[in-house]
Amino acid sequence: MEGGHSSADKTEFTECWRTTWKTPYIMRLALSAGIGGLLFGYDTGVISGALLYIKEDFHDVEKKTWLQETIVSMAVAGAIVGAAVGGWMNDRFGRKKSILVADVVFFVGAIVMAVAPAPSIIIIGRILVGLGVGMASMTAPLYISEASPHRIRGALVSTNGLLITGGQFLSYLINLMFTKVPGTWRWMLGVAGLPAVVQFVLMLSLPESPRWLYRANKTEEARAILERIYPANEIEDELKALHESVENERAEEGSIGENMFQKVVSAWKNDVVRRGLYAGITVQVAQQFVGINTVMYYSPTIVQFAGFASKSTALALSLVTSGLNAVGSIVSMCFVDRYGRRRLMIISMFGIITCLVVLSAVFYQAAAHAPAISSQESLHFGNNSTCQAYLSAPDAARWDCMRCLKFDCAFCANGASEFHPGACLASTPDIRGTCRGEHRVWFSDGCPSRIGLLAVLLLGLYIIMYSPGMGTVPWIVNSEIYPLRYRGVGGGIAAVSNWCSNLIVSETFLTLTKALGSSGTFLLFAGFSIIGLIAIYFLVPETKGLQFEEVEKMLQKGYKPRALRGKEKEVTKG
């Protein structure tokens, strides 16, 4: 998933509850900024349901797979630019103003999508929304971490991660609410502007980050905010710590270069940072190439691939997978400090690979047992309505539903049973209406299947295996793996690799399903996951319970997994 947050153990959550109960202002800061995570999550989930109805309104979108992929993925492309612009704005104008600008851009994008008269305008709206998401996804956690007491910082920053998965869950609920409302997808996409308005209003009454103010030499303003966050007897100590931290940061920034290009070159020449980047980029790329955002962005479509033609049913079943993702984030918070980052990721990858392989087998079986095409059923609707590829095919007698869909036609199910031989018809709005007018089910993305529910259950299990490990841990690793002076540039490089991988996966998923079928596509992601598992095993060290200096010393020597270290010792002894 896109967007990072740090972890917190049970003690920290208990302390967080006590502290925020005494000082509600702290939670107000965290939740107000955390709405940025909600926007991020909502946009990730909402397009998956809206796309089902956009295809019905615009025939070009239904016919052109690349257009569907572009509508989905342009938000990711916008987010890559937004994250880069957001980093500059954070330093130049402050965290608060960056969040306010992100809200305005996101709101404008939501309105543009809601009133779009053509797919091209939807794409423009998606780019604007992506810009807002990119700015918010990196600014919100930063604001929360800098405006939180250090002893509960991890727990409060974790609220941003929870709001991301909560936003995804909310988007599926909203999608389900508007399935029967005129304008369906316009409402789904337009409602996204409301949280942006709420956050904009709330942030107007909140202060700037005390750390940014102190760096901008606004010491008294920074003190005034700290006085609202910390007890009176801790203020001077916090100001002293803030002073030392800012001065060290300035000195370190000077030593690694002034502009981004110099910082990247300096980071890559440093052995410790380069090894940290091997680990950080590995986990971020692996997170995307296990195929998670195919589920997040296309979940209802995948459910339709499994044989559920009803859009409302597909959305309802997708709601379950989104809810499991939110639950998985909470599970991760409970176990990541107990069992370690590396172990959780490796266990997660084994589970993901297993689910993807079994999913591939289920979709293969579903395709192999697709209902046959009946010439009588097809000609029942007239020659002009029948799929032209079917009429001219020399092997038409052997056609089934899957073969019909491969030629961009549609399957009109038998009136007696979806699993009996049905009709292969041209995929047009008029013929779809004729099919439904006879109380038959229209299938354009998947075929009726007796094992479709098993595929949905496996999707849920996939999410359960993904979320506590590969869903949250890559961001935690990237917050711990780099030396302090390189943390910004290292985390930025890894985050960009995450967004770019996200863009590649979301832009190619539907094309892959056309070329390889659902079964082949999930098997391909299983292959990518195996490569990711091997890379994690050899490149990613365990950082649980280590001070930043200890991580740096470990990378200075060069990391090797325990199994290889054992063999090395045996050779040395021999």
From TrEMBL:
It comes from Quillaja saponaria (Soap bark tree). Its main location: membrane. It is a multi-pass membrane protein. This is Inositol transporter like. GO terms for molecular function: myo-inositol:proton symporter activity. It is found in: Membrane. GO terms for cellular component: plasma membrane. Belongs to the major facilitator superfamily. Sugar transporter (TC 2.A.1.1) family. The keyword Transport applies. NCBIfam families: SP. Residues 29-544 form the Major facilitator superfamily (MFS) profile domain. SUPFAM superfamilies: MFS general substrate transporter. Gene3D superfamilies: MFS general substrate transporter like domains (1.20.1250.20). The chain crosses the membrane at residues 29-54, 66-86, 98-116, 122-144, 156-178, 184-206, 277-299, 314-336, 343-364, 451-477, 489-510, 522-540. Keywords: Membrane, Symport, Transmembrane, Transmembrane helix, Transport.
